[in-house]
């Protein structure tokens, strides 16, 4: 019996895992078909998000050119960022090294956050620097989460980097959004602006800030707990940790969505605070791309199992 058992165990160890079941597009319900179409359109636009970021940044520099004679950073840095965003957008849309393109774009988003936060030539007040830098860091974290395709594996470095960066951003945004919390080490003006920017007479101001703060706070816990726990050597993926990160993605999307709708879409308020038109548009674009990155990344495993209609298949 032992040789038979060894042969069976050898076959089980070398067996090819079953592929996920493929679903015909026509077999889906009307709502599911609509969802698939929306996800594919979002994925199409998301692959070209670098192009939109480059255009918005160039428009911001063009707006600043009306009242300054020199750009806030050296021209070669501007050209480098614009070129990288165009190249990574091309790589994602044409599927030429898409993972590398996303990772490189995330690195340059972090560098852009550094420039916005610490380059004195921009002339922004500290509260605005923190606000812009956090959005760009959140975009970098969301891009890295898209690489994970809605999953989490502690053995993959980009997974840990993505959840760690997203967790830090969610923690700061959550604390800033809570009405009763203050961050003495940060600029208190930012906390005041975050609380005052919500649309009046539409949202219950304190309630919406509590919801945003709690959503970001719980997302911080879901993101950071799996990377703080040290597993025994040789231990593989933990389903509970992956589920925590999935829920953190959902809570982060809730926080980003409410922040976008309730606060950052209030152009009248931010214009009154002296925020440039294209800078505010860039902030909104960054938040939209962050939400889309997390949502599309989480839907990729399911979306890949849906076959295209016959008239869309290549001959």
TrEMBL record:
Pfam families: TMEM101
Keyword match Lipid biosynthesis: no
Transmembrane segments: 45-64, 76-94, 101-118, 130-149, 161-182, 202-228, 240-262, 282-304
GO terms classed as biological process: positive regulation of canonical NF-kappaB signal transduction
Listed InterPro entries: TMEM101
Keyword terms of this UniProt record: Membrane, Transmembrane, Transmembrane helix
Protein's UniProt name: Expressed protein
